[in-house]
Records
---
Amino acid sequence: MVSFALLWRPMCLFLSCSQTTSPEESSYQIVEQLYGVPDGWTEDGVPSPATPMKFHMAVSNDRMAEFEQRVIEIATPGHQLYGQFMTRDEVGDFLRPSNDTVDRIVAWMKSERVPSESIERHANWITFTVPVSQAEDMLKTRFHSFRNDVSQETAIRTLQYSVPQDIRDFIQMIQPTIKFGQFSAQENQPDLEPVATRFDDLNVNCSTTVTTKCLRRLYGIYDTEAKPDPRNKLGVSGFLDQYARYDDFRAFMRTYEPDHTDANFNVVSINGGRNDQDSSFASTEASMDIQYAVALAYNTDTTYYTTGGRGPFVPEVDQPNVGSSSNEPYLEQLHYLLNLPDQDLPAVLSTSYGEYEQIIPESYANVTCNMYAQLGARGVSVIFASGDSGVGGSCVSNDGTGRTRFMPTFPATCPFVTSVGGTYGVDPEKAVGFSGGGFSEYFQRPAYQDESVHGYLDQLGDKWEGLYNPEGRGVPDVAAQARGFVFVDHGYFMKLGGTSAAAPVFAAIVSRLNAARLERGQGRMGFLNPWLYSLNNTGLTDIVDGGSVGCTGYSDVGGRASIVPHASWNATQGWDPVTGLGTPDLNTLIKVACSTEGT
C-alpha cells in the first residue's frame, strides 16, 4: 500500500528549504498549510499580481457552543423555546465577535491597505477583496496558478498562509487559500436508462419504477394540493452547471401529473450561477430534483438555487483531483441564504450533493455545519442526501496512515441537517445497497439521537470495531425511495437512482407538514431532528430488511482501495446507519406535527 505521504510533492518546489525568515514574518503564525501540491495538480506559473481575489474569513466566537445548544432547544418538542425561531438580526447579534476582536482584525487589514469599501461584515464573517500581490503581502505567502491534470481547469492557490500572532486565535480560516477542488451529486449512475413514455407502460408499485403516483401511494400523500402560503417556500440546491429546464419540467408534469400542469418554479442565481435553458449538457440531477420536489409539494412556492463556483477540497484516494471530484460551493450558497431577509428564506432546503467527510478539512466542516445551524435557528429544515457509497468507497483514510476506514458523507454528517438514506421495493421496503451511512469522524453524536443510536450499537457489538467512530453522529436520520426514478432530461424520459432522489421526496413531505401547521395557525417545522427522534417511530415505517455495501476494493478513480469482506450496515429494528428511523407516512406525521408544541 502506497503511503499517503507519497501523494505530495515537496513544498520546497515553491518555498526554498534554506529560506530564512524575516523578523517581520517571525511575528506571524501559520493558520493552515499543506506539505506539498495535491496529487493531480501541476504548478502552472504565477497569476497576474493585479488579479482580484475575494476572501472569506471566519472569525472565532466563544459563544458558538451556546448558540448551537439554543438551536437544539428551539427544535426540541416540550422545551419552552420550541418553535421560537430567531431572526436574522438576532442570529447576527448572537454570533457577532466582540468589538475588540473585530477591531484588532480590521486594524491589521487597514495596516495592510485593504480598502474599507471592499470589507464586508456578516455575523462572524469578514469578506474582503484584494489583488493577488496584496494578498501575498498580507498572508506572508505566494499564490500560484495550478492546473488540474485531467480537466485542465486552473485555480489560484497557495500551500500555506499566516496571520499576525496576536490575531491568530481570532481567525478560524480564510478561503480561498490552500484548498483545491470540487464535488458530486449523490446519484447512482448505473441505474440511468431510457424508459417508456406512456404511464400505462410503467409499473407503479415501486418495485422497479418510481413515479409521483407511486410515491403518493407509498407515503400517504393523498391530499394532492397544499394550501399556498408565502411562509412555506421550498428551495432546491443546484451546483456544478446543472440547470433545471422548464421544457423538461413541463413534459414531466404533462405525463405524470396531468392535473397539475399549472405548477412552476423560480430560478435564483447565486455567485454567478447560470440558468442556461439551451445547454446541451446533461442535467440529470437538476431535472430529477426539481420535477419531484415541485410535483409532490404542489402549490408550494419552489425555487431552484443555481450556484456558481467551486468549493474546497483536500486530496484523498477516491477524489484526488478536480477532474474526478466536485465539491459544491457550500459557502457561496450559505452566505447568500443567511443574508436574506427572514421572509425570503426557504422553509425547506433540499440538497442532493455531498462528498466523503474526510475530504473536507475539519475546520471547514465545523464552520459550514454551524451555518446550517444558523438556518435551522431561523426556521429552515435543511435536508441532505446521505450519499451513494454505502459504508464507503475506497475505504482508505487520508490522515497520513492509509488505514482501512469506513467513509461517511458530508454535509450529511452535520448534526444540524436531516440526512436521507435510500430504500427500494414495496411490501416490504428494503435498504438499498448504495445508501450512504455510518458515523462521523468530526462530529460527536448529539444528545437527540443518543438513545436511538446506542440501541443499534448494542446490537452491533464489536463488529467492524476499528473501522468507524462509535461516538460519532449517526447517519442517516430517515430514508425514502432511491431507485428507479423516472424523470425527463433534454426531452428524453430516463430512469435514475440515488439518495439524491430520496432527498427532494422527503423535503416535499416536510413542506406538506409545514402547510398543514401553517393552515392551523402554527409555525413551521424548522430543524427537524430532535422532533424526529422523539417520535418513537410514530409516522415512520421502520425498515428492517436489506443493508448497505462498500469497501469492495474498488476506487472511483482507480486509486488505492481496501477490501473489507461483507462490509455492510444492516437495516434492523429501530434506527440503523442505512435507513435511519425509516420512511415517512405523511398522514400520521401531519397528525403528530400538528399536536407538537413547546411547554
---
Amino acid sequence: MPRLGIIGGSGVYGVFEPKETVKVHTPYGRPSAPVEIGEIEGVDVAFIPRHGKTHEFPPHEVPYKANIWALKELGVERIIGITAVGSLREEYRPGDIVITDQFIDFTKKRDYTFYNGPRVAHFSMADPFCPEMREIFYNAAKELEIPVHESGTYVCIEGPRFSTRAESMMFRQFAHIIG
C-alpha cells in the first residue's frame, strides 16, 4: 500500500493514472471521493481530490477529517497538500511554487482536531510542516528551474468567499499567500 498521500485540487488530476480505486469508510463519514491508488516515478501514491471528483464540495464542506483518516487507514505516512492560492506579496507571482513553513488558521467552523480524549493534551505546532519533505520539494523545483520560494506563511480563511480588501491588507502584514 502507498506510504505517500496527495490531497489536491483539479490541477492535480492528470498527474498519474490510477491502478485502483478504494472506498474507505471512516468515523467521520466519506472522504471527498474514493481514494485513487497509483504510481508516480516508481513511488506508490494515494490521491484524494480535495473538492471531490466533480468538484462538488465547496471549501467549507470538504470532509477534511475523513480525507486524512482514509489516507491513514491505507497506510499513508506522509501527506502532500497541493492547492491553488492567492498571493499577498508582489514577489510571489502566479505560477510560483511556495514551500510553506508556517500557517495561520482563520477558519471559524471547521472541526480541526482528531483528539477528543478524556484528558487534556497539548500538541506543538511550532513547526507544522516536515522539514525533510520541504527540502526535497525545494531542491526538486530548483533543479527543474521552477520559480520557488523556500518558505512562506499561508493564511487559511473560511471559503468559499475570498477576503475583502481590508482583510487582505491585514493578512499581508503576517502572511505571504492566502487560500
